[in-house]
Amino acid sequence: EDNLLANCNAIVALHPDEATGSIVETAVANEIPFLAVPCCVFSRLFPERTKPIVGREDGSGSEGGESNSTTVSTYYDLVDWLVAKHPDIKVTRLPFDGANIAVW
Asked: 52 with 69: CB under 8 angstroms?
């Protein structure tokens, strides 16, 4: 039997690419502290990752079959999607250029 998660004190993921969502979901589900620094979004590989459309200027909603969500397609969309996994998740900007947002 694999006891890796049971013996894990924290999960640290630096630029984990396609594994980002699974890492955060696993940490949240198992109540393991984590820090992830996401990088690439991979929206084509994960079309099921969606975020709500907030504050639509035209006031329209889901009437007529319109969706109230859109595919996660930018770096900041990905960060928001990860943060939405649990109300206690926080975000910190790290002091270097590039993909430098830590989600924890």
From this structure: yes
**Which token pair is 21?**
């969502």
Q: What gap in Å lies between CA 79 and CA 52, rounded to an integer?
A: 13
Q: Which residues contact 15 (CB under 8 A, 6 or more apart)?
A: 37, 38, 39, 40, 99
pTM of the predicted structure, to 2 decimals = 0.82
Going by the DSSP 8-state scheme, the letter that residue 25 receives in this structure is: H
User: Which structure tokens are listed for 10?
Assistant: 């924290």
Give the range among 7-21, 44-58, 72-86 with minimum mean pLDDT: 44-58
Assigned token pair, 104? 């924890």
13 forms beta bridges with 36
d(CA 72, CA 12): 23
